[in-house]
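Exercise 7 asks you to align residues with tokens for two separate proteins.
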Amino acid sequence: MNHGRFVSLVSACFLFALPIRLGASAIYQITDLGVLPGGSVSSATAISSNGLVAGYGDATSLISQPFLWSSGAGLSGLNVGSPLAEALGVNASGTVAGYLLSSDLSTTSAFTTDGASTALIPTLGGANNVATAINDSGTVVGYSDTADGSQIAFSYDGSTLSSLGLLPSGTTSAAYAINASGVIAGQADAADGSFHAVVSSGGTWTDLGIPTGYASSDATAIANSGYVAGTLTDGLGASMGFLWTPSDPTDMTLLGALTVGGDSQAYGVNSSGLVVGTSDGVAFLFDSTGIQDLNTLLDPASTGWELESATAINDLGQIAGTGYYGGAMHGFLLDPETSPVPEPAGATLASVGLLLAACWRRRSRKERV
């Protein structure tokens, strides 16, 4: 028997069988959120647990109008009674939170809206407040002026407004994110005046600290699993995105940048520890392999896009953000494609066996001739 020839034949048959078992790597399909009637630009700022997207864009006679996007209804403008307003958060019920400016543009007011009615959130005694996020229970967080001119983080459950307080000897705080359990992430100043990323659970801020070499930290997102993402700055204009893990609260993972010596800012994180943001004007995804340019992960059919910033990611892996399509700024939604389900190992081995048998029969017939 020619063993070399048989091994080559087996190898060829096996290689022919491999595609039966191997699946393609997951990539993203992109949905253009479009623009509002009479408008030319849009920007996506938030995504809910079930894939609703909120943001803002210009529209007829409106400088900036909040919007809600859903796969069924598409892009819908939300009339909140102001020519300049932005949506910054959305929950699974389609309730949107954000801020609007007064008609003379002198004050800002936090609001929630379901598209049919808009409710203003009371302040902590001052003139201005901003709502930054809302969870599926309907709790809104943000920051508000107080009567003495300070800025303090707040939470609001629809009836009760609560001050979230300060770090010891601090003077200001802000809340930027809230997860399904009501854990809040944000920023507060310390006694020395530096700004620190903080997390609040049960009414007390936990200081996440500032790594050596940086001057400030800011927590902008929190996952249901407790992961926190945010940005560090060095006080000289440079920035670096980070991932904080509750299981190792003394350590921050630096995300790096898409270019050598570049900057990054993290805006969203999910329960798997996937982080999204922007690096030197390019949208990124950070996973176990490191930081990646989201433009390189698009389905090959998704041409014409330049993704600039990824602002939010949910536990389904869906990503919302803003990019340029045909030269115009548009909000987008990325849906991870599902890899082909690998055939069960037994079925694969059986297929390989049948192929090998066929190849062997063919070889035997040739040797008998």
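Second protein for Exercise 7:
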Amino acid sequence: MAADYDLVILGSSAIAELLALEAKSRSARVAWITFPEIISDWHIQQLLSPNPDWQWQLAVSGIDVITGAAQFIAPNAVQAGQRTLTARHFVVCDPVSLNLRQAQGGWTWQDFYELHHTLTELTIAGGDDLCIAIAQWLHRQGTAVSLLVPTASIFPQIDREATRFLQAQLESQGIKIFTGHRVTATRQADAGQSITVWAGDRRFEVKHLLLPQFISVVPQLNLECVPSRRLHYLTHKSDIDRILAKALFAGWWGQARKVTNHTMTCCHTQPAIAQVVSMKDMQGKKLVLRSVSDRHFAKLIATPQGQILSASMVRESAIFWIEAIAQAMQYRQSIKTLSTCNPISQELVAQFERQQSQPLLALWLNICRDFDLV
């Protein structure tokens, strides 16, 4: 029996949307089943987006979007609401839950999603882009928000200087951030008026607590009836190439992406923070270039010959700038090719040219001193 779709994606995340668009660009017939009871980074992006009509945008792209619970009823068929969808391949996006020693009185994302009144105060246990984005959204609604971040800094995988700048920006907006405070236990007071939270070596008394716990969709899907050759799991952006190659024969038709020589990290906060890092050996002499103002932070590391090794930025348009840097790295372009991008790039290129000329100037001055040249 013919299948309705080449690819059916189950679960909501930003990379799920990216996979759907990539598959559609390769002429595949794609359906995307989202779960309204599970809130993710993708949902928050829609809240913060200036154009929230995402379903219409995807429909224009030719992607069939279905919202509701889903369950497999056959090796090649899934029931979603009143519809039965058949496909050659299925992709499951399953969020990861946080384990606590004792969890009493806190809300999960699902509880929060069902609230119908504005909160005056909220503490969020977490420091990823989802927690920060929802903290910013709530702060705009008039809620006093605090973040208990388990790591020594927000986004520990990104350059420390960039994350410090972003944290300062968030704190200037009114969001309190406590880094190095991993939540280990919670307990609700007998009267139910407050919640005691143990995080790091401190104890907090909070009014409302939001815990980044997710309901796993895997046990609800009845995956046992789906053969492994049809089923794929999407947890990271790097999984997209593998899924496209297996499901759409991307390599056979020469449509597979080029192998990249860098890794990119993008977080949809406001301002956004993004980074690209070369996967090559970064030993040897390096030039560090920075551009900092009240509204942006940019840092670029390059070799004395102009090869870009890494770049990070905090700015509204940071993701677009980092994507341009990543493209320059992919094609081994010199840092000097960035001089036409924007004023920030021009400033960094000017710094590079000054630093590049300093060793030559120092050598010339040494010669002048040795031979007493005037």
